Amino acid sequence: MSFVIWLTGPSGAGKTTLAKALEKELKGRGMKVEVLDGDEIRRTLYPDIGFSREAREMHNRVVIHMAKLLSRNGIVAVVSLISPYRSVRMKARGEIGRFVEVYLKCPLEVRIERDPKGLYAKALRGEIKGLTGYDGVYEEPENPEVVLESHRMSVEEEVREVLKKAEELGYLEV
Ligand SMILES: Nc1ncnc2c1ncn2[C@@H]1O[C@H](COP(=O)(O)OS(=O)(=O)O)[C@@H](OP(=O)(O)O)[C@H]1O
Ligand SMILES: Nc1ncnc2c1ncn2[C@@H]1O[C@H](COP(=O)(O)OP(=O)(O)O)[C@@H](O)[C@H]1O
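^ thats the input. predicted complex w/ adenosine-5'-diphosphate below
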Protein backbone atom coordinates (compact mmCIF):
# COMPACT_ATOMS: atom_id res chain seq x y z
CA MET A 1 0.00 0.00 0.00
CA SER A 2 1.56 3.27 -1.10
CA PHE A 3 0.06 6.78 -1.11
CA VAL A 4 -0.95 9.66 -3.36
CA ILE A 5 0.53 13.15 -3.54
CA TRP A 6 -2.19 15.32 -5.04
CA LEU A 7 -0.88 18.64 -6.42
CA THR A 8 -3.67 21.15 -7.02
CA GLY A 9 -3.57 24.79 -8.10
CA PRO A 10 -4.19 27.01 -11.12
CA SER A 11 -2.21 26.98 -14.33
CA GLY A 12 1.38 28.18 -13.84
CA ALA A 13 1.37 27.62 -10.07
CA GLY A 14 4.14 25.01 -10.39
CA LYS A 15 2.42 21.60 -10.31
CA THR A 16 4.30 20.04 -13.23
CA THR A 17 7.66 21.36 -12.03
CA LEU A 18 7.14 20.04 -8.50
CA ALA A 19 5.76 16.69 -9.73
CA LYS A 20 8.94 16.06 -11.72
CA ALA A 21 11.16 17.02 -8.79
CA LEU A 22 9.22 14.73 -6.44
CA GLU A 23 9.45 11.89 -8.93
CA LYS A 24 13.22 12.30 -9.15
CA GLU A 25 13.68 12.43 -5.38
CA LEU A 26 11.44 9.45 -4.64
CA LYS A 27 12.96 7.34 -7.40
CA GLY A 28 16.37 8.24 -5.99
CA ARG A 29 15.18 6.67 -2.73
CA GLY A 30 14.39 3.46 -4.62
CA MET A 31 10.62 3.89 -4.71
CA LYS A 32 8.28 3.22 -7.61
CA VAL A 33 6.66 6.45 -8.77
CA GLU A 34 4.22 7.42 -11.48
CA VAL A 35 3.32 11.02 -12.34
CA LEU A 36 -0.28 11.49 -13.45
CA ASP A 37 -0.33 14.78 -15.32
CA GLY A 38 -3.76 16.16 -16.18
CA ASP A 39 -2.66 17.80 -19.38
CA GLU A 40 -0.91 14.64 -20.60
CA ILE A 41 -3.83 12.35 -19.74
CA ARG A 42 -6.22 14.68 -21.57
CA ARG A 43 -3.97 14.67 -24.66
CA THR A 44 -3.68 10.88 -24.66
CA LEU A 45 -7.24 9.87 -23.86
CA TYR A 46 -9.64 12.67 -24.84
CA PRO A 47 -7.92 15.68 -26.42
CA ASP A 48 -11.19 17.40 -27.35
CA ILE A 49 -13.08 17.03 -24.10
CA GLY A 50 -12.69 20.71 -23.13
CA PHE A 51 -12.95 22.54 -19.83
CA SER A 52 -16.63 22.62 -18.88
CA ARG A 53 -17.43 21.66 -15.29
CA GLU A 54 -18.82 18.35 -16.49
CA ALA A 55 -15.70 17.55 -18.55
CA ARG A 56 -13.33 18.46 -15.72
CA GLU A 57 -15.30 16.36 -13.23
CA MET A 58 -15.30 13.32 -15.50
CA HIS A 59 -11.59 13.71 -16.27
CA ASN A 60 -10.72 14.18 -12.59
CA ARG A 61 -12.67 11.00 -11.73
CA VAL A 62 -10.53 9.08 -14.22
CA VAL A 63 -7.38 10.40 -12.54
CA ILE A 64 -8.68 9.52 -9.06
CA HIS A 65 -9.22 5.96 -10.26
CA MET A 66 -5.76 5.70 -11.81
CA ALA A 67 -4.11 7.07 -8.66
CA LYS A 68 -6.05 4.63 -6.50
CA LEU A 69 -4.97 1.63 -8.59
CA LEU A 70 -1.34 2.67 -8.56
CA SER A 71 -1.11 3.46 -4.87
CA ARG A 72 -2.77 0.25 -3.77
CA ASN A 73 -0.15 -1.64 -5.79
CA GLY A 74 2.80 -0.02 -4.06
CA ILE A 75 3.45 2.80 -6.50
CA VAL A 76 3.52 6.42 -5.32
CA ALA A 77 1.15 8.38 -7.56
CA VAL A 78 2.08 12.03 -7.94
CA VAL A 79 -0.98 13.75 -9.39
CA SER A 80 -0.51 17.06 -11.18
CA LEU A 81 -4.01 18.28 -11.86
CA ILE A 82 -5.69 21.68 -11.54
CA SER A 83 -8.70 19.87 -9.98
CA PRO A 84 -10.54 23.14 -9.33
CA TYR A 85 -13.51 21.72 -7.42
CA ARG A 86 -13.44 21.06 -3.70
CA SER A 87 -16.07 18.33 -3.96
CA VAL A 88 -13.95 16.39 -6.46
CA ARG A 89 -10.83 16.64 -4.28
CA MET A 90 -12.90 15.44 -1.31
CA LYS A 91 -13.97 12.47 -3.38
CA ALA A 92 -10.30 11.78 -4.18
CA ARG A 93 -9.40 11.92 -0.50
CA GLY A 94 -12.26 9.62 0.46
CA GLU A 95 -11.55 7.04 -2.22
CA ILE A 96 -7.80 7.00 -1.87
CA GLY A 97 -7.33 7.26 1.89
CA ARG A 98 -3.55 7.67 2.03
CA PHE A 99 -3.64 11.15 0.58
CA VAL A 100 -1.41 14.22 0.76
CA GLU A 101 -3.21 17.23 -0.70
CA VAL A 102 -0.72 19.92 -1.69
CA TYR A 103 -2.04 23.35 -2.63
CA LEU A 104 0.32 25.29 -4.88
CA LYS A 105 -0.58 28.85 -4.15
CA CYS A 106 0.75 31.62 -6.31
CA PRO A 107 -0.61 35.12 -7.01
CA LEU A 108 -2.14 35.88 -10.39
CA GLU A 109 0.51 38.53 -11.22
CA VAL A 110 3.27 35.93 -10.83
CA ARG A 111 1.39 33.33 -12.85
CA ILE A 112 0.84 35.88 -15.60
CA GLU A 113 4.55 36.62 -15.58
CA ARG A 114 5.51 32.93 -15.68
CA ASP A 115 2.89 31.94 -18.23
CA PRO A 116 4.79 28.78 -19.29
CA LYS A 117 2.22 27.90 -21.96
CA GLY A 118 1.15 31.40 -23.04
CA LEU A 119 -2.38 30.78 -21.75
CA TYR A 120 -2.65 33.94 -19.63
CA ALA A 121 -1.56 36.02 -22.62
CA LYS A 122 -4.36 34.42 -24.63
CA ALA A 123 -6.87 34.96 -21.82
CA LEU A 124 -5.80 38.62 -21.48
CA ARG A 125 -6.36 39.07 -25.22
CA GLY A 126 -9.79 37.44 -24.85
CA GLU A 127 -8.84 34.51 -27.07
CA ILE A 128 -9.73 31.88 -24.45
CA LYS A 129 -12.43 31.91 -21.82
CA GLY A 130 -12.64 30.13 -18.47
CA LEU A 131 -8.92 29.88 -17.73
CA THR A 132 -8.69 28.56 -14.19
CA GLY A 133 -7.52 31.22 -11.76
CA TYR A 134 -8.11 34.01 -14.28
CA ASP A 135 -11.75 34.02 -15.33
CA GLY A 136 -12.44 30.39 -14.45
CA VAL A 137 -13.36 28.95 -11.07
CA TYR A 138 -10.73 27.66 -8.66
CA GLU A 139 -12.06 26.64 -5.25
CA GLU A 140 -9.17 26.96 -2.82
CA PRO A 141 -8.52 23.95 -0.57
CA GLU A 142 -9.75 24.49 2.99
CA ASN A 143 -7.63 21.95 4.84
CA PRO A 144 -4.84 20.70 2.58
CA GLU A 145 -1.99 18.79 4.19
CA VAL A 146 0.50 21.26 2.68
CA VAL A 147 0.28 24.80 1.29
CA LEU A 148 3.24 25.94 -0.80
CA GLU A 149 3.65 29.54 -1.87
CA SER A 150 5.64 28.74 -4.96
CA HIS A 151 6.67 32.38 -5.58
CA ARG A 152 8.37 32.47 -2.17
CA MET A 153 10.31 29.22 -2.15
CA SER A 154 12.55 27.02 -4.23
CA VAL A 155 11.47 23.74 -5.78
CA GLU A 156 13.90 21.94 -3.43
CA GLU A 157 12.18 23.49 -0.40
CA GLU A 158 8.82 22.43 -1.79
CA VAL A 159 10.03 18.82 -2.15
CA ARG A 160 11.30 18.86 1.45
CA GLU A 161 7.97 20.18 2.79
CA VAL A 162 5.90 17.58 0.97
CA LEU A 163 8.09 14.66 2.00
CA LYS A 164 8.24 15.89 5.59
CA LYS A 165 4.44 15.78 5.71
CA ALA A 166 4.35 12.32 4.10
CA GLU A 167 6.78 11.13 6.77
CA GLU A 168 4.71 12.67 9.57
CA LEU A 169 1.65 10.89 8.26
CA GLY A 170 3.54 7.60 8.28
CA TYR A 171 3.41 7.12 4.50
CA LEU A 172 7.13 7.39 4.01
CA GLU A 173 10.10 6.02 5.91
CA VAL A 174 12.58 8.67 7.01
N1 LIG B 1 -9.59 27.09 -19.76
C1 LIG B 1 -8.59 26.39 -19.21
N2 LIG B 1 -8.50 26.27 -17.88
C2 LIG B 1 -7.49 25.57 -17.32
N3 LIG B 1 -6.52 24.95 -18.02
C3 LIG B 1 -6.56 25.03 -19.38
C4 LIG B 1 -7.59 25.75 -20.02
N4 LIG B 1 -7.38 25.66 -21.36
C5 LIG B 1 -6.27 24.92 -21.54
N5 LIG B 1 -5.76 24.54 -20.35
C6 LIG B 1 -4.58 23.66 -20.19
O1 LIG B 1 -5.03 22.43 -19.64
C7 LIG B 1 -4.30 22.09 -18.47
C8 LIG B 1 -5.24 21.75 -17.32
O2 LIG B 1 -5.57 20.46 -17.34
P1 LIG B 1 -6.02 19.70 -16.01
O3 LIG B 1 -6.44 18.37 -16.48
O4 LIG B 1 -4.94 19.79 -14.99
O5 LIG B 1 -7.24 20.59 -15.48
S1 LIG B 1 -8.63 20.21 -14.80
O6 LIG B 1 -8.33 19.50 -13.52
O7 LIG B 1 -9.41 19.37 -15.71
O8 LIG B 1 -9.31 21.51 -14.54
C9 LIG B 1 -3.52 23.29 -18.06
O9 LIG B 1 -2.25 22.80 -17.67
P2 LIG B 1 -1.37 23.46 -16.51
O10 LIG B 1 -1.00 24.80 -17.06
O11 LIG B 1 -0.20 22.54 -16.37
O12 LIG B 1 -2.16 23.54 -15.25
C10 LIG B 1 -3.50 24.17 -19.28
O13 LIG B 1 -2.30 24.01 -19.96
N1 LIG C 1 9.21 27.39 -6.53
C1 LIG C 1 8.72 27.05 -7.71
N2 LIG C 1 7.92 25.94 -7.83
C2 LIG C 1 7.44 25.59 -9.02
N3 LIG C 1 7.62 26.26 -10.18
C3 LIG C 1 8.40 27.36 -10.12
C4 LIG C 1 8.97 27.80 -8.91
N4 LIG C 1 9.67 28.91 -9.15
C5 LIG C 1 9.56 29.15 -10.46
N5 LIG C 1 8.79 28.23 -11.08
C6 LIG C 1 8.50 28.23 -12.52
O1 LIG C 1 7.09 28.44 -12.69
C7 LIG C 1 6.60 27.70 -13.82
C8 LIG C 1 5.50 26.78 -13.36
O2 LIG C 1 5.00 26.07 -14.46
P1 LIG C 1 4.39 24.62 -14.34
O3 LIG C 1 5.20 23.77 -13.41
O4 LIG C 1 4.17 24.12 -15.73
O5 LIG C 1 2.99 24.93 -13.62
P2 LIG C 1 1.60 24.18 -13.72
O6 LIG C 1 1.87 22.71 -14.00
O7 LIG C 1 0.96 24.39 -12.35
O8 LIG C 1 0.83 24.84 -14.81
C9 LIG C 1 7.79 26.95 -14.40
O9 LIG C 1 8.31 27.70 -15.47
C10 LIG C 1 8.78 26.90 -13.22
O10 LIG C 1 10.12 26.84 -13.63
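The CA atoms of residues 1 and 86 lie 25 Å apart.
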